[in-house]
Each structure stands twice: as structure tokens, then as C-alpha cells.
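Could you join me in thinking about how sequence relates to backbone shape in a protein? Would you write everything just below, so we can both look at the same thing?
***
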Amino acid sequence: MLRGTGSGPTIPSPPLVLVVRPRRAPDAPQLARILINQEESRIPDEAGTVVRAKLTITYRRLADQPGRRPYPTRRFLACYARQWDDRARISLTSHNPTGGAVFLDLEGLEGNRIGSFLMNLVVTWARQWPDAEVNPISLLAHQAHGDNTIRRNRFYEQFGIVFAYTDDTSAAGTAKEMRAGELQPWAHLPENLSVLPLEAAFDEQNRELDTLRQSQQTMQLRDRALRGELRHAMAHPLRFAARQIWYRHAALLIGAASLAVLGGLSLLARVR
């Protein structure tokens, strides 16, 4: 393996917020927001050519309820390594060029393409070195459960990764050899996902907080008015009861009074 001249700089990308809506109902209210950070480190050789690189993507679901404990932070990892004979290898799943695994732990959000979004970031990064060999990914039978098998396989296959499966159930298999340039990143973002820069996400959150404050103020004013009416009713129960009868039966009382007046007029007319 070629040696680098140092540890190399760590290059952070601007954080972003992934807004997630239901995959089958992209116009529905959002399910969650995911905070995503990306950091890349590179090690060059004496000529300045990159011989090692690592990508670290951290993601965390943002709390959606006041007072809720923070969700844990998880990671997606990838790396690039160039060998002494100028052959290069890429792992899409680890900082180890010959191993790794992918785990997406977002309970209740499965199937909404969050993992695919993160893997798309990895695939896009890996294509910087189109001639690098992609470390084959192995699928294990014990990880396949019902419909999850199709979703798990599709997770990789959508990026152009082809598997040699061991049987017709497609529960286990190993990815065929390929180079990073053959990976196929997304052409467009799925309808149920949208990306906000962190500043825009804060602005949107502030607008939502302002709306909640206004709603709270309106509720407080209504509560204050109701408390005042309650105190007044307790101080003047007969007047309160009369008002309630009037409010509830005003039309009936007016009608009865009108009939009484008409009846009186009719009686006077007869007497004359």
C-alpha cells in the first residue's frame, strides 16, 4: 500500500436536514426530520495524489415532541484505498476497504427511502474514483425476513449493484465485481423526500414556533374569558341562568311572545 504524507485534512460538508414524508403518500404531513452531517478525510502521497480517503456520514432523527429524549446518532461509512500497483478499492459500507456492514436504525420509519438517501450520498462520493474496484457486498440469509428481503436487495440493486444469489429466494448472495464508475446514483430525489439547508430548516422551525405561540396566546385569551364568565356566573347565578335560557331558546321565546301579541290583538278586535 502506498503511504501518505500525513493524516490528511478532515473536510466537513454543510449539514442538511432531510424532511421525510410517507413513501406512499408524499403529500401527507411529514413523518420526521433527519439531521445529516458529512465529513471526508484524505491522505495524499508525496505527489499530492489521494491514496486513502474516508467518508463518515452521521445522521440523527430530530426530536418531534417537546421534552423528548434525543434520538441516537448513527453512521454510514465508506473508504477508498490505492494499492502499490495503482489498483484501488472502495468499500461502500466501512472504513475498512475489505469489510463492513450497513445498519439503519430508525424505528417506525422503515421503507421511506431514508437509508437509500444516505447510500446515494456514499455512491456519489465513490464515483470520484471510477476505476476503483468496489468491495463485494454479501447478503446473508438470516437477514432476510419476508417482504424485508425485497426491500433489502432493492436497497443495493437500485445503484447498479448486481448480485449472484445462491437460490431462487434471493435470500443470500454476493455482489458481482464492478468498478465505482458503474455505480448508478439517483437521477432525482424521491417525491416523499426533500432536503433543507440547516439555516432553512431553522427558519421553518421558527415559523412553526411562531404559529404555535399565536395559537397558545389565542387559547390563553379564551381561557381567561371563560374563567371571567365562570366567576360572573357564580356571583350571579339567576342572571346567568336567565341568559343561558335566552341564548338557547331566544327564537322560541320570541315566537311565543309574537303569538301572544297576535292573540291579544285578535281578542281586542273581537271585543270591538
